[in-house]
């Protein structure tokens, strides 16, 4: 996988990211939605996400497969709060379902960590949806659970999940 930091957000790249976001969500991925979604569901959230990137506030990391197609991404999201300027939240961490199980997710996270260190950050934060075992993926990469909001995520009526907060110390 080839990674690129802050690629130009062309219409083509935006469409490829939205398509991957749909595929990841509809395959059961926890990237801001629950259940099956359509382009109509994802586009407004994607537009808001792209605004922070286009403004230069947030940083986009994209992974491309051997054919040059978008296969993975994450965003280093600025807190937009001066007292938190020394760390970022990783948002919209996703690997296309056709690429999962090949080590691409770990490679994406290592590249995100490299970028965080290059930016001089003290740490990286990520939230994960409880009940999916995602913390087992992040723990071997050096992330540790630092908090949990019980039942904070309502994925369906009667199905509330914990929001698990994890931290990677870069200092």
Task: Show the helix and strand layout.
Layout: E1 2-5, H1 11-26, H2 39-54, E2 59-64, E3 70-77, E4 87-95, H3 104-118, E5 123-129, H4 135-138, E6 144-156, E7 159-169
Parallel strand pairs: 4-5
Antiparallel strand pairs: 1-2, 2-3, 3-4, 5-7, 6-7
Describe the structure.
The protein has 171 residues and is of the alpha+beta class. The protein has a single domain, classed as 3-Layer(aba) Sandwich (Aminopeptidase). 30% of the residues lie in helices and 34% in strands. Strands 1-2-3-4-5-7-6 form a seven-stranded mixed sheet. Strand 4, helix 3 and strand 5 form a beta-alpha-beta unit. Helix 1 crosses helix 2. 26% of the residues are buried. The model has no long low-confidence stretch (mean pLDDT 95).
Instruction: Classify the fold: give the CATH topology.
Output: Aminopeptidase
Ends: how far apart?
27 Å
What is the domain tally? 1
Shape: globular
Strand content: 25-35%
**What radius of gyration results from the CA coordinates?**
15 Å
Number of discrete helical segments: 4
Summary, kept brief:
30% of the residues lie in helices and 34% in strands. The protein is of the alpha+beta class and 171 residues long.
Keywords:
alpha+beta; 171 residues; single chain; globular
